[in-house]
Amino acid sequence: MYSSNLTGFILAMVSSAFIGSSFIIKKKGLRKASVNGPRASSGGYGYLLEPLWWIGMLTMIFGEIANFVAYIYAPAVLVTPLGALSIIVSAVLAHFMLKEKLQRMGMLGCLLCIVGSTVIVLHAPEERAISSVEEIWALATQPAFLSYTASAVATALVLIFYGAPRYGQTNIIVYLGICSIIGSLTVMSIKAIGIAIELTLEGNNQATYLQTWIFAMVAITCIIIQLNYLNKALDTFNTAIVSPIYYALFTSFTILASAIMFQDYAGQSASNIASELCGFITVLSGTAVLHSTRDPDPPLITDLYTPLSPTVSWYIQGNSELWKQKDDGSPPSFITTLRQDYFM
Prior knowledge:
3-stranded antiparallel sheet
């Protein structure tokens, strides 16, 4: 059991390093693509033709593969919190490669996220033994998890069709909320597929079960939705902020989903559960600190005729005296007004 958890721990660390790097590479690709076409946050898909974005995509795929294998060897409540490493990787790389300044309070927020994750890992429950994909299906169709799934899908649909069009450009929680809620369902499906693969390699073929392919289809659908809205979040907000908030939300929803589906905390002592709760609070506190250090993003210019620099109005009074003032209020009435745009 301990050697299995150690393998999962190492794979989760490798995964976080790859995924953290992919945030930066993909954002550089998104920036290059936005020069020649609509931004991803505005519904553009020009980044699909940008090689740098695909390099970032491959980096993320390698990280997700490592993460996928980690879920085979260790429980989700152990693997998922280790994604905190991706926060540090992406924040440091963004500071140097994207010139997105990480302030001292932001560093403190990262540290709080790491401390909280450590507490969660130290008090994580052991993984329950699964003997077949049918057993996983029975867990997925129990009333408690069906209720969670229905609530998650309903919330995601509200955010997609109501929240995103209205608040997606100004509220970071909208895009990342969609990614995190759908992501919790992705992890449960990935966990089921991973167990099915492990059992198949041991000689118990699980590919003959319809449930295995249902889990695969759910995973693919959820991953596509995640990637779409993660691209929108990366293209709209500061990377040093996207990573920790996505981590905190994704971890919280994933552990909640795992606790409901796999009943991870059955038989846990009150002290362990309390320690886990403290870990979550610490992570969320770190996220709040990081969010408070975020610099306001410049508004998108949608009017092509909007001046890019201050406007200066020149006024000629009746006595031919020439003077000027910034166009920041209602100009007084004069006989003749000559208005021109002044470009620095």
